[in-house]
Amino acid sequence: MEKKTSGTRGATGRREFGGGSQGRSLRKGLRSDLNLEAKTLSGTGLVFDEQLNEFHCLWDDSFPEGPERLHAIKEQLIQEGLLDRCVSFQARFAEKEELMLVHSLEYIDLMETTQYMNERELRILADTYDSVYLHPNSYTCACLASGSVLRLVDAVLGAEIRNGMAIIRPPGHHAQHSLMDGYCMFNHVAVAARYAQQKHEIQRILIVDWDVHHGQGTQFTFDQDPSVLYFSIHRYEQGRFWPHLKASDWSTIGFGQGRGYTINVPWNQVGMRDADYIAAFLHILLPVALEFQPQLVLVAAGFDALQGDPKGEMAATPAGFAHLTHLLMGLAGGKLILSLEGGYNLRSLAEGVSASLHTLLGDPCPMLESPGAPCLSAQASLSCTLEALEPFWEVLVRSVETMEEDIVEGDNVEEKEEGPWQPPALPVLTWPVLQARTGLVYDQRMMGHYNLWDSHHPEMPQRVSRIMRRLEELHLAERCLTLPARPATDAELLTCHSAEYVGRLRATEKMKTRELHREGANFDSIYICPSTFACAQLATGAVCRLVEAVLAGEVLNGIAVVRPPGHHAEQDAACGFCFFNSVAVAARHAQAISGHALRILIVDWDVHHGNGTQHIFEEDPSVLYISLHRYDHGTFFPLGDEGASSQMGRAAGTGFTVNVTWNGPRMGDADYLAAWHRLVLPIAYEFNPELVLVSAGFDAARGDPLGGCQVSPEGYAHLTHLLMGLANGHIILILEGGYNLTSISESMAACTRSLLGDPPPLLTLTRPPLAGALASITETIQVHRRYWRSLQITKVEDKEGPSSSLLITKKAPQPANPGSAKEMITPEGNILDAGRGKATSVSPVEESTAGQTKSETAVVELTQDKSLEAATEEATLDQTTSETATGEATLAQTTSEMATGDATLDQTTSEIAMGGATLDQTTLGATPGVATVDQTTSETTTGVTTLDQTTSEAVRGAELIQVPLASSTDNQTPPASPVEGDPPHISPSKLIGNLRTLELDNEAQEAPESQSPEEERLLGEATGGQDMDDLVLMQSFGDNADTDQAMFYAVTPLPWCPHLVAVSPVPDTGLDVTQPCQDCGALQENWVCLSCHQVYCGRYINAHMLQHHEGSGHPLVLSYVDLSTWCYYCQAYVHHQALLDAKNVAHQNKFGEGMPHSH
């Protein structure tokens, strides 16, 4: 008897399943798409060369980046026998032409000369960069390190090996086009990406950077390139952590054609754990990567986020990095290369490398000690990143939802206060030694169950025989350990079924045909024959035998090719072709033989809801049941509301029943994977199962006559691979439904290959998830948010609070005799961007009208007396309008301050250099009060002093650094209240320079803990995570020094950008700063193009220069107002030697003299 219809499983007439021309066409299509018979690559490549240890810091033996890092790794790999398991490749030197794919020839030549420098010369050159040292062998080793990665690229793309790892030093991901940075000379991963594109014609490359420091060098290389997807997850702490770049925040998503292809996940607190990293991969990286479809994955594999590393101060574990590696192995057909970056605790570094290498070799991921869910800070960072990316990736639509109030109130899990960070003890990882990887259980006797009245019934005996035949054709069966099937015992059956029901089915063995027909009619969608009981008993026992083999360590995982199916079977009733609930009985059997309530995850991807399994475990919190099925608002078999998303379990089991309800046909790979990434895997990792059982029905497969869905064999392979990271790899697939013989054979074969360790085949998603699918997933998430914190990634209204730049201050000791402003310097290095923090309380952020952005306000406070009149005066810097009110403050022009990049505070004029433009405080001093920077509103008020940014582009796109000047009578720094960001209007700058923000005090203050000269010489911010050096900005305010308080802004330009090559020599006729705009004749705020030397007006006049850039592509322009230089592509100011000729000529024309300090 078939299952009853009205959207049910049953067939109302005879049909030839998998036969005829249509069936042959489907078979051909499935096999062509899957290409299961293609050669499977194997082998993990390893490059490890002792020559890479032939350099160190000559002037500091304790420098963290030293040869002992590779020594520790090698010792660990030998101890675990990993070196012998890998395919060893000889390192080679990268050629200059290869390095020039990323770096300039001049820079490479300069680095080459370091081979001949003495220690003093090396140190002088190193000091011109941030956080580097040089050795006569640095250049040679850096070339060898880059070449090592290129050798692996050739091996992987040349089909010599499947994946590989380069254990190299020095690291590379901070190195830029013409700049050493953060221990890095050449950017190995960036060079490898360009090399793969050029030599191997690879079109799409994914770079994953999990080093605890942001790989700004890699990001800057590709941030305009849509052929490279860059993903970085790093410590940021609102800009307090090195490299202190606004470009490291979530709002930086690339430029031009590369918008959306740069992904930053910034951690804003220390102590981030495995759950936080895994959540970032599941919610962001994997969905985007599947849409991007990379052909090669490169990993900047730093291990300084591991617990025990005092530089990163994170709490990830080696096991966690094994899981990250496993998740990446499902991409690009398994073409994955890890390149060592940072990591400075020798033990954790060695174990992190070892764990990742184990995974590359195909070993199962270790159990996570306590995965839990992402912390609140991580949730906020993920939410911000998702919202920034959603416009660019269809797969991320509705990835972040607003949490309803009642959901929040239902959450009984609170974020615990973290104490001071202490390096915890690393768990000891063990790796199983297995007789075989995958177990296979099958018995031909199960074909004895058949329909006496309808030989074409969908649940036919050929289902299992055709699967086995296909496994044998593909030589997959011989790669498995075949286990003998056995009947389930009564004791095993009685763990889930009543004795009365078992006896009732046993009695059918002696019934006559008419009695069998009548007995079958007593159940829903059931037929019974004399062999039914024996076959059902054998099917259930076979699964129990496989469970025993997995838990005993005979095999790692397994597949059970069994019938009849079981997931509809209730405690006391057969249902939907099912008699004994094999998965449920197997779960109880696993718990019985393990001796405790083993945590078991049951994933049911059969297209029909497993009502029987749900009912058996609905009060049991030790079993997490997740079902994805067609529901069609209760009209699809098994009908009713039992499979509704609102069903969540009962009593102690509340929250442990999860239903994803498809309310229509055509669900395919994109829909199932969206459910996996957003719902199934987050909950599964939080549950942390010890065994995974899959009710593997393949009636959602493409071509199935009952399911009406479109999941491909490749899709099932990916679903299987993603589940294999759980439960130490202990996963068993049990056949349930699936009624197209070709579909089920190809799908089970694809899953078997994944279980055997083969990489999932390339998966081409032809469409994004359907709107109906997303609605169903979201509906289930809303129901379960109160029970699973991993689902609580919701929209963050206040983006600045959790993840954007805030005011950063540090007290510094004040000298007895403060120097004049002329003696103050701004140290070179990397700029700390804190421009979008809010220093003082202002009116609440108001919601804008439709189509407008929310207002974003930063506050500049300049208080010089406490009179009532002063309190009523305001100066407003409006960044978006050209309206100014009476009493406006002017944006003064500077000359020498701009050229040197120094920010100086002049005692007479109180001018603050802003990267070439100064804020004249003489005017503001006459009208003390609060100066507000309002970036979105056009409102101006009488009596309000407005500093209008329309007079210059000096501040547009630049990073504003708030520097509080606190009085000695009030040592409290104004709190940094968050304000909402506006990513579409603020283009993140790749700013380099080092502006440290400090609280100034005329009284002696507590000095920070002293450091030894050796510690100071570590240049440790690149990997030290140490506090920023003190910068003492002294200013004498006369008699008012005790009460005056001020806050000012400074802008530091980029010291280099990749578009400087577009600068043309100044024409012989020179430059005329009085020249009007060539289009409109405007005389104010004109710019000259440094490529063609045409003059046009700025964006706040008629935007003709912007139009010129968009039409010509010329990147760099020089302002005739303040002589600042702007790069349209970098969206930042630039100050570089290549620009000085044009600036000097313009300065001579404007002021009648050359620029001071034009060096």
UniProtKB/TrEMBL annotation:
- Recorded GO CC terms: axon; centrosome; dendrite; histone deacetylase complex; perikaryon
Q: Which InterPro entries did the record assign?
A: HDACs (IPR000286), His_deacetylse_dom (IPR023801), His_deacetylse_dom_sf (IPR037138), Ureohydrolase_dom_sf (IPR023696), Znf_RING/FYVE/PHD (IPR013083), Znf_UBP (IPR001607)
The pathway is: Protein modification; protein ubiquitination
What domain of life? Eukaryota
| GO biological process entries | epigenetic regulation of gene expression; mitochondrion localization; negative regulation of cellular component organization; positive regulation of cellular component organization; regulation of microtubule-based process; response to stress
GO molecular-function term, one example from the UniProt record: zinc ion binding
Where along the chain is composition biased (Polar residues)? 965-974
State the compartments where it is located: Cell projection, Axon; Cell projection, Dendrite; Cytoplasm, Cytoskeleton, Cilium basal body; Cytoplasm, Cytoskeleton, Microtubule organizing center, Centrosome
Residues of the region (Disordered) are 1-27, 802-885, 964-990
Protein's UniProt name: Protein deacetylase HDAC6
The source organism is Equus asinus
Lineage of the species this protein comes from? Eukaryota, Metazoa, Chordata, Craniata, Vertebrata
